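#lab-general

N.A. 3:47 PM
ok so I finally got the sequence cleaned up, no stray characters, all 157 residues accounted for. can someone with queue access submit it? mine expired

B.Y. 3:52 PM
send it over

N.A. 3:53 PM
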Amino acid sequence: MRHAKSGYPDGVADHDRPLAERGVREAPLAGAWLRSHVDVVDAVLCSTATRTRQTLARTGIEAPVQYLDALYDATPGTVLAAINGVADDVTTLLVVGHEPTTSSLALALAGPGSDAAAVGEIEAKFPTSALAVLRTDATWDALELGAATLVAFHIPR
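B.Y. 4:20 PM
back already:
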């Protein structure tokens, strides 16, 4: 998931930017969509940026959260390494991060059988609050590029 729409207040460092009014409205819509279309989230990896933390809080998703500095301004490889460290008992993981990393990683993980329309939408744009849903039979520590199937892409509005 990409964080919800953030504001740009004067004098606030990028890491500390809060959600804009639109983000405050749309993050709960993303959470509602997740709860109705995805298995119960067992764990969350979330960037430490203010906007990602606020996004997660407004989704209403209740699961153990690991806030990681490394997810802020991360490369897709950094995020995949964090995912590779998730415990085997987690079946559904939510990652809350930033662009362009979120779209790059979703596309890189999407292997054979992925929803072509969803791939095309992500290639065009991965807007704020958007969610890419990927499924895999791999364990978290064995997840690698191309080893998942992109099954849905949703933009809550």
